[in-house]
TrEMBL record:
InterPro entries: Kinase-like_dom_sf, Prot_kinase_dom, Protein_kinase_ATP_BS, RBK1/2/STUNTED, Ser/Thr_kinase_AS. This is Protein kinase domain-containing protein. It comes from Selaginella moellendorffii (Spikemoss). The keyword Lipoprotein does not apply. GO terms for molecular function: ATP binding; kinase activity; protein serine/threonine kinase activity. PROSITE patterns: PROTEIN_KINASE_ATP, PROTEIN_KINASE_DOM, PROTEIN_KINASE_ST. Transmembrane segments: none annotated. The lineage of its organism: Eukaryota, Viridiplantae, Streptophyta, Embryophyta, Tracheophyta. Belongs to the protein kinase superfamily.
Length: 283
């Protein structure tokens, strides 16, 4: 059994984050802001303060859904929850990830190039986490917001899938379902999702394919010229010009066989039709 979560007081959260000091702000999204903090015992934490919600009721509904989903999830490649606080707003408390997110390490201006072995480790660990959510979890889950900024990196760069704010339970009987409004991150959205609102496990598979292309190329999903990474990569994928895809920052230091396998998986995952994409157990 999972240990019970700790219910923090607002004063504990305030003390840990130095009164939500701007210096401790480490992340900001459409639904929440995240602050770094230190508990009285010295443990480093990340406090996710929920901000999104048309009404308090809507915000609380989202908070309880996320809490319920995290409660089902226990895997080395998903972020564990330490506790929560419901005084003066809604807060979730997680262990702090010393290396930050994949986005900050891969695209940050100060970071040195990620080695090939680390990129491969992140690709494999994220796949294991998704396989767990889709197939192994007591109730199957679609994440709906797989992206580099939601992949946190542990001390040894082991990836952890975070942010279950948009996650949905998969129905018992296998069937896709339609969701409105369309939420998620542009650049990672599967065509059938942003065009028709259709969501199932293949929505996450498409986003995982985009993530693989990011790891291979070092490019962002949408570049400064608003070009989509899938559209940019497709001619190279179709002509098997694999070397042209590789991040120049790697300076040729990669394993060709591993690269070929990752490129093949990425190609299958970003197929236009969800029917042609593999499921995570095939990945």
């Amino acid at each position: 059994d999972k240990p019970p979560w700790r219910c923090f007081t607002y004063d504990e959260i305030l003390l840990a984050t130095s009164c939500f000091s701007p210096d401790n702000l480490v992340g900001k999204g459409g639904y929440a802001v995240v602050y770094k903090g230190t508990l009285s015992d010295g443990q480093l934490i990340a406090v996710k303060k929920l901000t999104k919600g048309d009404s308090e009721q809507h915000k609380e509904g989202g908070f309880l859904t996320e809490l319920g989903i995290i409660g089902h999830v226990t895997h080395p490649n998903t972020t564990p929850l330490i506790g929560f606080c419901v005084e003066r707003g809604l807060h979730l408390v997680f262990p702090f990830s010393p290396h930050g997110s994949l986005a900050s390490v891969l695209h940050g201006t100060k970071s040195k190039a990620l080695e090939w072995s680390v990129r491969r480790k992140i690709a494999l660990g994220t796949a294991r986490g998704l396989q767990y959510l889709h197939k192994v979890c007591p109730r199957r889950i679609i994440h709906r917001d797989i992206k580099a900024s939601n992949i946190l990196l542990g001390p040894d760069f082991e990836p952890q899938i975070s942010d279950f704010g948009l996650a949905k339970w998969l129905p018992e009987q296998w069937t896709h379902h339609t969701v409105t409004p369309i939420e998620g991150t542009f650049g990672y959205l599967a065509p059938e999702y942003f065009m028709h609102g259709i969501v199932d496990e293949k929505t996450d598979i498409f986003a995982y394919g985009v993530l693989l292309l990011e790891l291979i190329t070092g490019r962002k999903p949408i570049d400064a010229m608003q070009r989509n990474i899938v559209v940019w990569a497709r001619p190279y994928l179709e002509s098997c010009s694999i070397q042209e895809l590789v991040d120049p920052a790697l300076a040729g230091a990669y394993d060709s066989n591993q690269l070929r396998k990752l490129v093949l998986v990425a190609t299958l995952c970003v197929r236009q039709s969800p029917l042609w994409r593999p499921c995570m157990s095939q990945v």
